Amino acid sequence: MPSQIARQAFLVMLSSVAASAYASQVDTANASDTTVADTAVSQVADNADAIVTNDVENRTWVDKKHAQTKDWLGRTADSVDGWFGKQNPKDPARLSLRVMMDTTWNEYDGTSIKPRIRAKVKLPTLEDRLSIMIGDDTLDYEQTGEGVHNDERVNTPYEKDKRFDSRQTREDNSSLAVRWSKFRKNTGIDVDVGLRSDDLFVRARYKKDWQFANDYFARFEQMYRYGSQSEHTALTTFTVGQPQSDTRTIANRTRLYYTHDGDEDIEWGNSLYQEHLWPSRLGERTLSYGIYTGGNIEDKQAHLNTYGPYVSYRQPVWRDWLFLQGDASYYNNKTEDRDHHVSLFGRVEVVF
Q: For residue 146, which phi and psi values (nearest 5 degrees)?
Protein backbone atom coordinates (compact mmCIF):
# COMPACT_ATOMS: atom_id res chain seq x y z
CA MET A 1 0.00 0.00 0.00
CA PRO A 2 2.75 2.60 0.80
CA SER A 3 4.42 1.84 -2.54
CA GLN A 4 1.13 2.36 -4.38
CA ILE A 5 0.57 5.71 -2.62
CA ALA A 6 4.11 6.76 -3.49
CA ARG A 7 3.62 5.87 -7.14
CA GLN A 8 0.36 7.81 -7.34
CA ALA A 9 2.02 10.80 -5.66
CA PHE A 10 4.84 10.60 -8.17
CA LEU A 11 2.34 10.64 -11.06
CA VAL A 12 0.55 13.66 -9.60
CA MET A 13 3.88 15.44 -9.26
CA LEU A 14 4.74 14.67 -12.90
CA SER A 15 1.39 15.99 -14.06
CA SER A 16 1.80 19.16 -11.98
CA VAL A 17 5.27 19.82 -13.35
CA ALA A 18 4.06 19.26 -16.93
CA ALA A 19 1.06 21.54 -16.43
CA SER A 20 3.24 24.28 -14.96
CA ALA A 21 5.70 24.02 -17.83
CA TYR A 22 2.88 24.17 -20.32
CA ALA A 23 1.32 27.27 -18.70
CA SER A 24 4.67 29.01 -18.59
CA GLN A 25 5.29 28.33 -22.28
CA VAL A 26 1.87 29.65 -23.26
CA ASP A 27 2.46 32.92 -21.41
CA THR A 28 6.02 33.59 -22.53
CA ALA A 29 6.76 31.73 -25.76
CA ASN A 30 5.70 32.15 -29.35
CA ALA A 31 3.58 29.72 -31.36
CA SER A 32 6.45 27.37 -32.14
CA ASP A 33 7.48 27.21 -28.49
CA THR A 34 3.88 26.42 -27.57
CA THR A 35 4.00 23.43 -29.91
CA VAL A 36 7.12 22.19 -28.17
CA ALA A 37 5.45 22.58 -24.77
CA ASP A 38 2.38 20.68 -25.98
CA THR A 39 4.61 17.86 -27.15
CA ALA A 40 6.37 17.75 -23.78
CA VAL A 41 3.06 17.60 -21.91
CA SER A 42 1.83 14.82 -24.22
CA GLN A 43 5.01 12.81 -23.66
CA VAL A 44 4.75 13.17 -19.88
CA ALA A 45 1.10 12.09 -19.99
CA ASP A 46 1.95 9.10 -22.16
CA ASN A 47 4.73 8.09 -19.77
CA ALA A 48 2.39 8.45 -16.81
CA ASP A 49 -0.19 6.23 -18.55
CA ALA A 50 2.54 3.69 -19.24
CA ILE A 51 3.54 3.64 -15.56
CA VAL A 52 -0.06 3.12 -14.46
CA THR A 53 -0.59 0.43 -17.11
CA ASN A 54 2.56 -1.44 -16.10
CA ASP A 55 1.53 -1.21 -12.45
CA VAL A 56 -1.84 -2.79 -13.26
CA GLU A 57 -0.24 -5.45 -15.45
CA ASN A 58 2.05 -6.54 -12.66
CA ARG A 59 -0.95 -7.15 -10.41
CA THR A 60 -3.12 -9.28 -12.76
CA TRP A 61 -2.93 -13.05 -13.09
CA VAL A 62 -3.42 -12.93 -16.88
CA ASP A 63 -0.53 -10.51 -17.37
CA LYS A 64 1.75 -12.63 -15.23
CA LYS A 65 0.92 -15.72 -17.28
CA HIS A 66 1.48 -13.79 -20.51
CA ALA A 67 4.86 -12.55 -19.24
CA GLN A 68 5.84 -16.05 -18.09
CA THR A 69 4.94 -17.52 -21.47
CA LYS A 70 6.87 -14.81 -23.29
CA ASP A 71 9.92 -15.43 -21.09
CA TRP A 72 9.67 -19.18 -21.75
CA LEU A 73 9.52 -18.57 -25.49
CA GLY A 74 12.60 -16.36 -25.23
CA ARG A 75 14.52 -19.04 -23.31
CA THR A 76 13.46 -21.67 -25.84
CA ALA A 77 14.68 -19.51 -28.72
CA ASP A 78 18.02 -19.01 -26.93
CA SER A 79 18.35 -22.76 -26.43
CA VAL A 80 17.77 -23.46 -30.13
CA ASP A 81 20.17 -20.66 -31.07
CA GLY A 82 22.82 -22.19 -28.81
CA TRP A 83 22.82 -25.38 -30.88
CA PHE A 84 24.48 -23.55 -33.79
CA GLY A 85 27.29 -21.62 -32.13
CA LYS A 86 28.41 -19.13 -29.51
CA GLN A 87 25.69 -16.69 -28.53
CA ASN A 88 26.00 -12.92 -28.21
CA PRO A 89 24.20 -11.57 -25.10
CA LYS A 90 23.72 -8.24 -26.89
CA ASP A 91 21.89 -9.96 -29.76
CA PRO A 92 19.63 -12.65 -28.29
CA ALA A 93 17.45 -15.02 -30.28
CA ARG A 94 13.84 -13.95 -30.75
CA LEU A 95 10.65 -15.97 -30.97
CA SER A 96 7.42 -14.20 -31.95
CA LEU A 97 4.14 -16.09 -31.60
CA ARG A 98 0.54 -15.40 -32.67
CA VAL A 99 -2.29 -17.49 -31.23
CA MET A 100 -5.73 -17.04 -32.83
CA MET A 101 -9.25 -18.39 -32.50
CA ASP A 102 -11.25 -17.83 -35.70
CA THR A 103 -15.03 -18.27 -35.87
CA THR A 104 -16.96 -18.07 -39.15
CA TRP A 105 -20.71 -18.23 -39.78
CA ASN A 106 -23.11 -18.03 -42.69
CA GLU A 107 -26.61 -19.38 -43.22
CA TYR A 108 -25.53 -22.02 -45.74
CA ASP A 109 -22.51 -23.57 -43.98
CA GLY A 110 -23.33 -22.78 -40.37
CA THR A 111 -20.56 -22.16 -37.83
CA SER A 112 -16.94 -23.31 -37.92
CA ILE A 113 -14.26 -22.73 -35.28
CA LYS A 114 -10.59 -22.83 -36.18
CA PRO A 115 -7.66 -22.36 -33.76
CA ARG A 116 -4.52 -21.13 -35.54
CA ILE A 117 -0.93 -20.44 -34.56
CA ARG A 118 2.03 -18.85 -36.33
CA ALA A 119 5.54 -18.50 -34.91
CA LYS A 120 8.87 -17.23 -36.16
CA VAL A 121 12.27 -17.93 -34.58
CA LYS A 122 15.24 -15.69 -35.50
CA LEU A 123 18.69 -17.24 -34.88
CA PRO A 124 21.55 -14.69 -34.59
CA THR A 125 24.28 -17.37 -34.31
CA LEU A 126 23.56 -18.22 -37.95
CA GLU A 127 24.18 -14.53 -38.73
CA ASP A 128 20.45 -14.19 -39.42
CA ARG A 129 20.83 -16.42 -42.48
CA LEU A 130 18.00 -18.70 -41.40
CA SER A 131 14.69 -18.34 -39.54
CA ILE A 132 12.32 -21.09 -38.44
CA MET A 133 8.62 -20.71 -39.32
CA ILE A 134 6.05 -22.76 -37.40
CA GLY A 135 2.27 -23.10 -37.67
CA ASP A 136 -0.45 -22.30 -40.21
CA ASP A 137 1.45 -21.01 -43.25
CA THR A 138 -1.76 -19.84 -44.97
CA LEU A 139 -1.68 -16.86 -42.59
CA ASP A 140 1.21 -15.56 -44.69
CA TYR A 141 -1.23 -15.10 -47.57
CA GLU A 142 -3.41 -12.67 -45.63
CA GLN A 143 -2.86 -9.16 -46.84
CA THR A 144 -1.00 -6.85 -44.49
CA GLY A 145 -0.83 -3.08 -44.55
CA GLU A 146 -4.15 -2.80 -46.42
CA GLY A 147 -6.09 -4.51 -43.63
CA VAL A 148 -7.38 -8.08 -43.48
CA HIS A 149 -10.47 -8.23 -45.66
CA ASN A 150 -13.34 -10.69 -45.74
CA ASP A 151 -13.44 -10.78 -49.53
CA GLU A 152 -11.39 -13.96 -50.00
CA ARG A 153 -12.28 -15.66 -46.73
CA VAL A 154 -14.59 -18.62 -47.40
CA ASN A 155 -16.37 -20.59 -44.71
CA THR A 156 -15.49 -24.21 -45.51
CA PRO A 157 -17.49 -26.57 -43.27
CA TYR A 158 -15.76 -29.54 -41.68
CA GLU A 159 -16.67 -33.10 -42.56
CA LYS A 160 -19.80 -34.58 -40.97
CA ASP A 161 -21.09 -31.04 -40.28
CA LYS A 162 -18.66 -30.49 -37.39
CA ARG A 163 -18.12 -27.06 -35.88
CA PHE A 164 -14.62 -28.03 -34.76
CA ASP A 165 -12.33 -30.72 -36.17
CA SER A 166 -9.28 -31.46 -34.01
CA ARG A 167 -7.59 -33.58 -36.69
CA GLN A 168 -7.93 -30.87 -39.33
CA THR A 169 -6.70 -28.26 -36.83
CA ARG A 170 -3.55 -30.31 -36.14
CA GLU A 171 -2.85 -30.65 -39.86
CA ASP A 172 -3.42 -26.95 -40.55
CA ASN A 173 -1.04 -25.89 -37.75
CA SER A 174 1.63 -28.52 -38.35
CA SER A 175 3.67 -26.62 -40.93
CA LEU A 176 7.40 -26.34 -40.17
CA ALA A 177 9.71 -24.44 -42.52
CA VAL A 178 13.19 -22.91 -42.67
CA ARG A 179 13.41 -19.43 -44.24
CA TRP A 180 16.63 -18.35 -45.95
CA SER A 181 16.86 -14.77 -44.65
CA LYS A 182 20.21 -13.94 -46.27
CA PHE A 183 18.74 -14.70 -49.70
CA ARG A 184 16.10 -12.04 -49.04
CA LYS A 185 18.74 -9.46 -48.14
CA ASN A 186 20.50 -10.08 -51.45
CA THR A 187 17.49 -10.47 -53.78
CA GLY A 188 14.38 -9.28 -51.91
CA ILE A 189 12.86 -12.77 -52.17
CA ASP A 190 11.78 -14.89 -49.18
CA VAL A 191 12.51 -18.59 -49.72
CA ASP A 192 11.02 -21.26 -47.43
CA VAL A 193 11.62 -25.01 -47.43
CA GLY A 194 9.31 -26.95 -45.15
CA LEU A 195 6.82 -29.68 -44.37
CA ARG A 196 3.05 -29.36 -43.86
CA SER A 197 1.56 -32.68 -42.73
CA ASP A 198 2.86 -35.05 -45.46
CA ASP A 199 3.40 -32.27 -48.01
CA LEU A 200 7.08 -31.34 -48.53
CA PHE A 201 7.17 -27.88 -50.09
CA VAL A 202 9.33 -25.00 -51.28
CA ARG A 203 7.92 -21.48 -51.44
CA ALA A 204 9.20 -18.16 -52.76
CA ARG A 205 7.69 -14.74 -52.13
CA TYR A 206 8.58 -11.33 -53.55
CA LYS A 207 7.26 -7.83 -52.75
CA LYS A 208 7.92 -4.48 -54.40
CA ASP A 209 6.65 -0.99 -53.40
CA TRP A 210 6.55 2.22 -55.42
CA GLN A 211 5.83 5.85 -54.49
CA PHE A 212 4.55 8.31 -57.08
CA ALA A 213 3.59 11.98 -57.31
CA ASN A 214 0.61 13.26 -55.31
CA ASP A 215 1.21 10.53 -52.68
CA TYR A 216 0.02 7.71 -54.95
CA PHE A 217 1.54 4.34 -54.07
CA ALA A 218 1.59 0.85 -55.58
CA ARG A 219 2.53 -2.58 -54.27
CA PHE A 220 3.17 -5.81 -56.15
CA GLU A 221 3.37 -9.20 -54.40
CA GLN A 222 4.08 -12.58 -55.94
CA MET A 223 4.04 -15.93 -54.17
CA TYR A 224 4.82 -19.33 -55.69
CA ARG A 225 4.66 -22.62 -53.82
CA TYR A 226 5.32 -26.17 -54.97
CA GLY A 227 4.40 -29.12 -52.77
CA SER A 228 5.02 -32.83 -53.22
CA GLN A 229 1.29 -33.43 -52.65
CA SER A 230 -0.34 -30.04 -53.34
CA GLU A 231 1.76 -29.33 -56.46
CA HIS A 232 1.59 -25.78 -57.89
CA THR A 233 0.13 -22.72 -56.13
CA ALA A 234 0.66 -19.09 -57.13
CA LEU A 235 -0.81 -15.86 -55.79
CA THR A 236 -0.34 -12.50 -57.52
CA THR A 237 -1.52 -9.28 -55.86
CA PHE A 238 -1.37 -5.69 -57.09
CA THR A 239 -2.53 -2.72 -54.99
CA VAL A 240 -2.69 0.96 -55.91
CA GLY A 241 -3.97 3.74 -53.67
CA GLN A 242 -3.69 7.26 -52.33
CA PRO A 243 -3.89 8.60 -48.75
CA GLN A 244 -6.72 11.09 -48.31
CA SER A 245 -5.53 12.22 -44.87
CA ASP A 246 -3.23 11.06 -42.08
CA THR A 247 -5.78 8.39 -41.10
CA ARG A 248 -7.69 7.57 -44.30
CA THR A 249 -6.61 5.82 -47.51
CA ILE A 250 -8.50 4.80 -50.67
CA ALA A 251 -7.11 1.83 -52.60
CA ASN A 252 -7.87 -0.87 -55.13
CA ARG A 253 -6.47 -4.38 -54.81
CA THR A 254 -6.51 -7.01 -57.58
CA ARG A 255 -5.47 -10.65 -57.19
CA LEU A 256 -5.00 -13.79 -59.25
CA TYR A 257 -4.90 -17.19 -57.52
CA TYR A 258 -3.63 -20.21 -59.46
CA THR A 259 -3.62 -23.87 -58.38
CA HIS A 260 -2.63 -26.99 -60.29
CA ASP A 261 -3.28 -30.23 -58.43
CA GLY A 262 -4.23 -32.51 -61.27
CA ASP A 263 -6.60 -29.85 -62.66
CA GLU A 264 -5.83 -26.20 -63.30
CA ASP A 265 -7.91 -23.57 -61.50
CA ILE A 266 -7.55 -19.78 -61.81
CA GLU A 267 -9.53 -17.38 -59.63
CA TRP A 268 -9.59 -13.59 -59.74
CA GLY A 269 -10.76 -10.98 -57.26
CA ASN A 270 -10.87 -7.21 -56.93
CA SER A 271 -11.50 -4.98 -53.88
CA LEU A 272 -12.18 -1.25 -54.07
CA TYR A 273 -11.98 -0.12 -50.47
CA GLN A 274 -11.33 2.64 -47.97
CA GLU A 275 -9.22 2.12 -44.85
CA HIS A 276 -9.09 4.18 -41.66
CA LEU A 277 -6.21 3.94 -39.17
CA TRP A 278 -6.69 5.54 -35.77
CA PRO A 279 -4.05 5.59 -33.01
CA SER A 280 -5.05 4.62 -29.50
CA ARG A 281 -3.27 4.17 -26.18
CA LEU A 282 -2.92 0.42 -26.77
CA GLY A 283 -2.11 0.52 -30.47
CA GLU A 284 -3.68 1.05 -33.86
CA ARG A 285 -7.37 0.60 -34.70
CA THR A 286 -8.23 -0.34 -38.29
CA LEU A 287 -11.53 -0.02 -40.15
CA SER A 288 -11.83 -1.15 -43.78
CA TYR A 289 -14.91 -1.29 -46.00
CA GLY A 290 -15.48 -1.65 -49.71
CA ILE A 291 -16.92 -3.57 -52.66
CA TYR A 292 -15.60 -6.97 -53.70
CA THR A 293 -16.01 -8.73 -57.05
CA GLY A 294 -14.56 -12.11 -57.94
CA GLY A 295 -14.85 -15.22 -60.06
CA ASN A 296 -12.87 -17.68 -62.11
CA ILE A 297 -11.06 -17.71 -65.46
CA GLU A 298 -11.83 -20.44 -68.02
CA ASP A 299 -10.61 -20.57 -71.63
CA LYS A 300 -9.00 -17.14 -71.14
CA GLN A 301 -12.39 -15.66 -70.24
CA ALA A 302 -13.05 -14.06 -66.84
CA HIS A 303 -16.42 -14.98 -65.28
CA LEU A 304 -18.13 -13.03 -62.50
CA ASN A 305 -19.24 -15.31 -59.67
CA THR A 306 -19.38 -13.20 -56.50
CA TYR A 307 -19.91 -9.52 -55.66
CA GLY A 308 -21.03 -7.44 -52.70
CA PRO A 309 -19.98 -5.14 -49.84
CA TYR A 310 -17.83 -5.98 -46.85
CA VAL A 311 -16.53 -4.34 -43.69
CA SER A 312 -13.67 -5.26 -41.34
CA TYR A 313 -12.65 -3.80 -37.95
CA ARG A 314 -9.67 -4.67 -35.75
CA GLN A 315 -8.28 -3.16 -32.55
CA PRO A 316 -6.26 -4.01 -29.45
CA VAL A 317 -8.33 -4.38 -26.28
CA TRP A 318 -7.33 -4.25 -22.61
CA ARG A 319 -3.66 -4.88 -23.44
CA ASP A 320 -1.41 -4.11 -26.41
CA TRP A 321 -0.97 -7.87 -27.04
CA LEU A 322 -4.68 -8.80 -27.21
CA PHE A 323 -6.66 -8.09 -30.40
CA LEU A 324 -10.27 -8.47 -31.50
CA GLN A 325 -11.36 -8.49 -35.13
CA GLY A 326 -14.81 -8.62 -36.68
CA ASP A 327 -15.70 -8.90 -40.38
CA ALA A 328 -19.04 -8.96 -42.19
CA SER A 329 -19.86 -9.44 -45.87
CA TYR A 330 -22.93 -9.65 -48.07
CA TYR A 331 -22.01 -11.81 -51.09
CA ASN A 332 -23.66 -14.16 -53.53
CA ASN A 333 -22.19 -17.25 -55.19
CA LYS A 334 -23.49 -18.13 -58.65
CA THR A 335 -21.50 -21.36 -58.90
CA GLU A 336 -23.12 -22.78 -55.76
CA ASP A 337 -26.50 -21.14 -56.51
CA ARG A 338 -26.41 -18.96 -53.40
CA ASP A 339 -28.19 -15.63 -53.20
CA HIS A 340 -26.69 -12.65 -51.40
CA HIS A 341 -26.36 -13.55 -47.74
CA VAL A 342 -24.64 -12.33 -44.59
CA SER A 343 -21.34 -13.95 -43.57
CA LEU A 344 -19.65 -13.14 -40.25
CA PHE A 345 -16.09 -13.66 -39.11
CA GLY A 346 -14.57 -13.10 -35.67
CA ARG A 347 -11.01 -13.45 -34.42
CA VAL A 348 -9.45 -13.28 -30.97
CA GLU A 349 -5.66 -12.99 -31.19
CA VAL A 350 -2.93 -13.03 -28.54
CA VAL A 351 0.57 -11.92 -29.51
CA PHE A 352 3.69 -12.97 -27.60
A: -90, 0
